[in-house]
Design goal:
16 strands; 4-stranded mixed beta sheet; alpha/beta; 5-stranded mixed beta sheet; about 525 residues
Amino acid sequence: MSQILPFPSATAKKAVILARVSSKEQEEGYSIDAQKHRLQLYCTRRNLEVIRVFEITESSTTGDRDQFMEMVAYAKAQKDCIAIVADKVDRVQRSFREFPLLDDLIKAGKIELHFNTENQIIHQKSVSQEHMIWSFHIMLAKAYTDSQRDHVRRSQEHKTRLGEYSSMAPIGYKNIRDDKGRSDIILDPDRAPLIRRLFIEYAEGIYTVPEMTQKAKEWGLRNKAGNQGALSKGNLWHILNNKFYYGYMTVKGQLYPHRYEPLIDKKLYDACQDVFRGWKKKPFKWGEKDFMFRGLIKCATTGATVCGLEKKRTRNSISRKWMYWRCNSPEDPSKTLYVREEDILRQIDVALARLEIPEEMLRDIISDLRETEGTQREFIDRQAADLTKEHQQLQKRLDKVMDLHMDGLIDRGEFERRRKEFRDRQTEVEQQLAAARTGDDGFKDAMLSLLDMMKNIREMFAGSQTEEKRALVGTLFENLTLKGATLCYSFKTPFSWFADLAKNEEWCPRSESNRHTLTDTRF
């Protein structure tokens, strides 16, 4: 047993034991019990009556320290001077934040501080040297905490530079431990395909967020809460606005590339953002109605979205129903016109006929695509190599500017400026590199799928349900307007390449504009 030095000026006869850990994980070990055991022995040696034991689980450097303040209030409320007994100074405080409060109570004779390891008591009559030693121990505890914080910050910055994400992975990914026990993030085989499908379908601009929420529920897409809950509209909004899915993570408000497999590309993400901006401009009053052209057609006269109007009539117990779309007359804008949906569908059918490709021409096009494969591959490999080299050079510059900042050779402002410059260019290079790596095969595969689709596009449309027809119209057309009873339109790229291809003797998709009205004499 260590020798107990006398402290003749210490007057406390009653004690409060303070056993503190900074996290729940520590509490579940033996730290609290070990502290309590040592402090009970200390109080016995000092002839101190223990009136209460406080087991505190909270940080001494962050938050309001509610449990600690509860202990101080309890000691302050006692009539006698109370000894607050702790294992070490850093169990009581790791900064000078609480110093004024404790010092005032000590000078008023309300409390004493007993530190077992340091064998020190701070009481009402402590001399300046004892206060200096107390402050010195606080300073050491603070220095240790600051050092740990710096280490964690450097470690986090290093992980960020390596593209590692330290938080919970978003829906569509899974947090795992690899064979060496290190944390990692991988694609969730169950949810990832559904998240990708969400982006693809929303980018068509046909469905609202509530409609996509219902679709996600029908697909069986659930959140991470034990596979229990369906996604809310808020969940879906955060998913569609999360840059993590195309390869970037947000750390403390800054955007960094991560090393995990992207679920989508930035082009698809940007398409969804364009749709978000579009919906904000046109909230549909009849959004709950399953109207085929809802939100897809505008009035050429006023620029407003045309409204659907359903008419019903029952005669001899037989009900009939007609669908009209309301717009304004181009000759007299004050006059309202009602165009029957059947008339619009007939014009859609004429437009789709322009996209159909004869079987013989289809074979020629596929043959041409395959003949160009070797030359394209050589060019793309060379382009990818140049981009990879530039990306590596940019990463070296980023590492260097980080080292300069950590060594104090450049200030925070200069560091942020240079980092942003390199990050922006690195983002551009990564996008170009991704396009170069996947563009060749992806382009040919997409072209072959499109060509196959074009063979029977009219039959596909005619045999589809209302929701499928809406999806096809939103996929194929843009700038749909009603000019009186005439439907005007443009084909979206790449469908515009196939317009009137069957009428051309040579395949030249860009030979003329694809902008037409359905009364155009050219067809």
